[in-house]
Every structure is written in C-alpha cells, then in structure tokens.
Amino acid sequence: MTQDTGSTPLSPTSPSGRDTFDSLNPATGVVVGTHPVHTADDVQAAVTRARDEAAWWSGLSHDQRCAHLLAWKGVITRALADLAEVVHRETGKPHGDATLEIALAIDHLSWAATHAERTLKRRRMSSGLLMANQAASLEYCPLGVVGVIGPWNYPVFTPMGSIVYALAAGNAVVFKPSELTPGVGEWLARTFLESVGRPVLQVVTGLGETGAALCHTGVDKVAFTGSTATGRRVMAACSETLTPVIIEAGGKDAVIVDADADLDAAADATLWGACANAGQTCIGVERVYVHERVYDAFLETLVAKARDVHADDSPGALLGPITMPGQLDVIRSHIQDAIDRGGRAVLGGPDAVGERYVQPTILVDVPEDSLAVQEETFGPTVTVARVSSMTEAITRTNATRYGLGSTVFSRSRGMEIAERIRSGMTAVNGVITFAAIPSLPFGGVGDSGFGRIHGADGLKEFTYAKAIARQRFKPVIALTSFARTAADEQRLTRVLTLLHGRKGTVRDEAGKAGVA
Ligand code: NDP
Predict the structure, then answer these.
(1) Ligand 1 center from residue 228 Cα (angstroms)
(2) Ligand 1 center from residue 181 Cα (angstroms)
(3) For 190-236, what is each residue's pLDDT tens digit?
(4) CATH numbers and ranges of domains, the chain
(5) What is the pLDDT of residue 16?
(6) Helices 80-91 and 62-78 sit at what angle, rounded to 10 degrees?
(7) Global pTM?
(8) Ligand 1 pocket by C-beta < 6 Å: which residues?
C-alpha cells in the first residue's frame, strides 16, 4: 500500500539535528509521537551492532535463549494493556482487536521459544545402505542477522511472526516497522532490551527509504511483510547482494459456502473475516462463493448481521477508522467499479466510504474481472456470488493471482474442498483460525509471496541446514577414491541393481496394473 501514508511528511529537523517524522492517530489526525528518520548509515550501524549481538545470542544454549524469550513474554503479557493502547493510538483499531492480536503474538512467542530446540537441534539421519559406514546428522543453524520489515495493519502480530521465530532460531534482528506504527516497534525493542539486557532486537524507524536501506546492509535474510508491489522492490534490492527474502504479501481470500453448511456460522465468520480491523487484514475475507441452493438464505443472514456492525469513533465501536487515508480512494474505486459493471450494493455502497471511516459494504452480481473481485480492497467490503457447484466455487476461488488464505463452510466435504484450493492456508468451518495455531506455517503462493513464518517451517526459515557425514568405519567399496577398482565398480552395479533395479507397478486411471 504505497499510494499514501497516514503519517506526516518529514517534520522540521529536531534539536539533535536529525530528521524526524510524526505518527498520527488515524481517527483524529492528532500527532501520537515523533520518531527519528534513520538514515542508511544509521541502519548500517544497527546491523553492525547486531552482528555482535548475534555472536552472543547464538552462543547461548537453546535453553538459555528460551528462558530469555519467555521472560520477555511475561513482560509483554503483564504490559498488554499498555501495548494495546499504543496499537490503538497508531492504527485506530478498537482496544479489543489490539488485545487479540497481541494475545496471538504472545502465544507464538511461547511456541517458538519452547519448540526451537527440538525443531533445530542436531539429529541423526539415515545414511542409507550404500553409505552405511557413515553416521549422518543434520542441524539447523542461525543465519546471523535478520532484517524484518513490517506493515501497519497488525503491527504486533505480523512482524512478531518473523521476529520471534528468527530470535528463537538464534538470530539477532533489526526491525523496521511501518512509518504508521513506529511506536509499536519501539515498544517491542525497548521491552526486549529491558528484559534481556542486550539489544538482540533493535528497531530502526523512518519511511520507505529506511526499509530500502535495510535491504542493502548485507543482512543474512530479509523477512518482508507488506504489499506485493513493495515486495517486488524489496526482492529486487536484495538480489543485488544475494540476500534471501521471505515475502508475505497481499491476498484476496475467499469463503466457500456449500449447500450443507451451517449458514448462521458461515455468515458470522464471513462478516467478521471481512470487516474485523475495518477489513485491513491480509487474510481478510474479500469474496464469497455460495452454493445456489443456499445463496438467498446465506445473503439474507449476512446482511442482517452486517446491519449491526458500524465504524465510528464511539468507545464501543466494532470497527475503527481506515488507518492509511490513501486507502479510502482504493476502497471507493473498487465499489464504484463493481457498480459500474452491473454489480449491486445490498448493503453500503460508494456512500459508505467517509472521510475516515468505511461502513460494511456487501456487493452482489459483480463480474469476476472487476477490481472488487481481483484486487486487494483492504476495506470492510465483500462480494457474494452464486455458484452451481463446489467445483465452480473452487475454480473461481483459484482464479486470482493471489493465494494467501481461504475458508470453507461445509458439513460433509470441508476437507475435500480445502485440499483443492490453491492457497497457503485454509480454515474449515471457522475463519482465520490457522493464524492462531502456532504449529501451522503461515504464508502464501503466487502474488501473496513465498516463504513461511510460524511453526517448525517458520523456525527453519531463519536457519541454514548444516549436514555432517562422519565415517564410522572403512567402506566395503571405496567409492570416493582414485583407488577405486573395476571390481569395485562391478560390485557397485550389482548392489545398485539389487536396491533399485526392480520393476515397478504403475496403475492406469482405471486401476489396472502394468509393469514399467
Ligand atoms: P507496504 O508495502 O506499503 O509497506 C510495508 C513495509 O515496507 C513498511 O514498513 C514500509 O515502510 C516498507 N517499505 C516501503 N517501501 C520500501 C522499500 N522500497 N524497501 C523496503 N521497505 C519498504 O505495505 P503496508 O504497510 O501498507 O501493509 C499492507 C499490506 O501488507 C497489504 O497488502 C497486506 O495484505 C499486506 N500484509 C500481508 C501479510 C501477510 O502475512 N501476507 C500480513 C499483513 C499485511 P513505510 O511504511 O515507512 O513506507
């Protein structure tokens, strides 16, 4: 989302002579905090410092790192209300939503800390019959320094998905938060330092240039979360130094509702998935495909529920403002485009887009090639379409360039449908549930990016595999020596034929066996 920002441009230079920028409360426009614009030199200095921290941190045992991370977890948990207030002020999201994202991040921190050793420590591997004289083993080693670039929409949960897994795997981290949520980044780095006593996690603040600088510092990996467009720029910059990247980018997630689904539950989940956090969720629901037998009943239930959900500045409001003002134009243009192409708003519509808030909008009869179906809207809007079969629902779900999350509501065929959707994650009879399960990897395919955070895959993502083959006794056949003889080679061929030369059985589509 690079069109516009909710922070002010550079503020006058501070008394220290450093450029600063302000973060604003998107509900009021009031300045929440003033932060330094870290230059390329500042970022390089942070990475150099991180190298020393990485040496110390990776030298600790898994147990010692786990103890530090769990202590930090306690600090965050006890100060949860304070952090939620910072999130609320910088993003405008209701306190309840801020609390939920922090709670999930705490659970991930706990899981990463307590599962790093068993996931990454050296383990024995089978060496196979040919190399039976070798003891094979594998360990996952920390990369060194990881640069994390985060978005503003879930300023705790999303970057922590990279930060805590990178830390638990033994790396130091330099974190560049979004310019809309620098205070959250500073809060995390400050509490880490207070808890651990060393800046293994550092934060650098600033605008896009500060993030770009991080890509050029020679960090050992960049974990980027943000829009697909910026992800491309990050990848291009990292390619210059062959720095590996994880790209967690946008989505256009769909809900599929089968004829036998629990319609009330499906409507409830669709509404929350589409509108929570004012729709500014990478794995938010933006499209729904409903079996024609239950389409009318589903739509009626969804609209009835959505009428009770409003975005405003009252203390009990379920939806907050749109955090990034420039996004209002994107949301408005997607709704208008849908209507111009023959779609209808059964709730909301172009007028639902105000100066800071957007009311829930439900669109029907929207052509599949319209913006509201193909592009990430990032607002509390959803398109609902009628399908004649689950095969049609799956085909239409898969027909975007994104592939992040998805949802299926079906009593009898949930797993079957889920397996046919091209997306990194799918929730069956629930919504966004996979993100809250620390053991499950999180990430997408296509324009939603690549690489995984969370779970064992997320820990391994911040490591390199170190394989060791140790000779236990002399080999029967000396294969890796110029002393190898013609007789050795014949013996090898005989062993190979015994091991791998058997004819296989391949069955055709009718199940008839043939020999290959
Ligand atoms: P952006 O792509 O605009 O920004 C993401 C981060 O990149 C920010 O910290 C930004 O800094 C920084 N940045 C901007 N330009 C550069 C550059 N040239 N080099 C390096 N870093 C740069 O995304 P948003 O912050 O608007 O976040 C919303 C997007 O994030 C949505 O598309 C959403 O779907 C996606 N997202 C994906 C998730 C996932 O896990 N797949 C999770 C959450 C969000 P600055 O803010 O200072 O410009």
Answers:
(1) 8
(2) 11
(3) 999 999 999 999 999 999 999 999 999 999 999 999 999 999 999 99
(4) 41-121+134-249+456-464 (3.40.605.10), 253-438 (3.40.309.10), 474-512 (no CATH)
(5) 62
(6) 70
(7) 0.94
(8) 1-2, 149-154, 158, 176, 178-180, 207-208, 211-212, 215, 225-227, 230, 233-234, 248-251, 282, 376, 404, 444, 448-449
